[in-house]
Amino acid sequence: MTDFDTVTSRKNTASLKWDKYRDQDILPFWVADMDFKLAEPIQKAVEERVSHGVFGYTVAPDGLSDAIIAHLQNEYQWQVDPSWIVWLPGVVTGLAISCRAFCNDGDEIMVNPPIYHHFYDSHEVDRHEVVRVPLCRKEDRWTYDFAAMEAAFTDKTKLMMMCSPHNPTGTVFTSDELQSLAALCKKNNVIMISDEIHCDLVIDKSAKHYPTAAACPDMADNIVTLMSGSKTWNIAGLNCSFAIIKNAALRDQFRAASQSIVPIVPPLAYVATQAAYQEAGPWRAELLEYLAANYAYLQTELGAVPGLKVESIQATYLAWIDATELGLDDTQGFFEEHGVGLSSGEQFGQPNYIRLNFACPRETLVKGVERMKAAVSTLA
């Protein structure tokens, strides 16, 4: 059994997550990386590669594509050809390259708030227009407002950028929802960019992730799928992601737009990613159980706090919390004043919400929750 309970200090390690509040008594629950050590197979693989001592320019090692393809087949019954894979140093890079590859001056890109903030700023501001069509709430989950989307498509709309599972709402879209979305995009000749970085983090056992391109074969030639092992296996700082692009013409456009501006993937990132997909499946299974228990704890404890609503999520380790009833002008700042660092809903396009990363040892989470309870009690 993996020990997820032991607290590993990340202070003085140049951690983005922890250094934001350096020398302050504020516990960080904001950016999406985990406070857990690597799975042993990944740690071992990285150490063995380090012992070689030479770190020149590197290509994807033999077996890496096969490991990913096997994972996608086993988990999602998605058959991917190795020629479809384009290596990237990050999924956000893939969003930005897609805008440059597939959009001309004056073209529109559709996004659906609330959504990960990089969806708002991956385009070229002086060349492209971002059109926001908000998600809607149905049966206690967030999903697409198909009627509003259909009304918003124009001749200028070239891309629809989405994340599935969804960040920050935690929705795992059904195959029917994805097919409805793809039908709209096909009707309007719009390319779909599907960020699926959280696909291996489904914590609701009644939900199932469907890769958009697999669920929508009629649209697959116009879908770019962006994936990475970075969130699932906590290797985001190593920088290895990949695009899966079936259409050779789109793939060539994507590669051309990457030329001279996208760095190659570093050697340790390749090694860690291969070990993750090949050998760290059991660690992931234990992680999902731990995350589900942490989320259940949050629902029980914060769900009982007046003014806070912990919304139901199906995937990710990011709780989406409605704090509207607290009536605060700056919800994030309020909790920071009480020692808890959260992500502000405003950055995702949903004011009065907060996002809480619960991928940490239970001890850390309990401390954060107790501070949040104490903070809200001061408003009474």
Outline the structure in words:
With 380 residues, the chain is α/β, with parallel strands linked by helices. It has two domains: 16-40 and 281-377, Aspartate Aminotransferase, domain 1; 55-279, Aspartate Aminotransferase, domain 2, CATH 3.40.640.10. Helices cover 37% and strands 15% of the residues. The strands form four sheets. A seven-stranded mixed beta sheet has the order 2-10-9-8-7-3-4, sandwiched between helices. It has a four-stranded antiparallel beta sheet with strand order 11-12-15-14. Helix 7 (175-187) links the parallel strand 7 and strand 8 (191-195). Helix 3 runs parallel beside helix 10 (267-279). The longest helix is centred in the C-terminal third of the chain and has 22 residues, at 281-302. It is globular. The relative contact order is 0.17. The model has no long low-confidence stretch (mean pLDDT 97).
Proper CATH architecture of the largest domain = 3-Layer(aba) Sandwich
Question: Nearest-angstrom radius of gyration?
Answer: 21 Å
The percent of residues in helical segments reads: 25-40%
CATH superfamily of the largest domain: Type I PLP-dependent aspartate aminotransferase-like (Major domain)
Shape: globular
Strand order of the largest sheet: 2-10-9-8-7-3-4
Number of helices: 13
Distance between the termini: 43 Å
Q: How many strands?
A: 15
Classified by CATH, the class of the largest domain is Alpha Beta
Q: Describe the largest sheet.
A: 7 strands, mixed
Q: How many domains, in number, for the residues?
A: 2
What's the SSE pattern? HEHHEHEHEEEHEHEHEEHHHEEHEEEH
CATH topology of the largest domain: Aspartate Aminotransferase, domain 2
Structural class: alpha/beta
Residue-averaged pLDDT, rounded? 97
Regions with pLDDT < 50 over 5+ consecutive residues? none
What is the percentage of strand-forming residues?
A: 15-25%
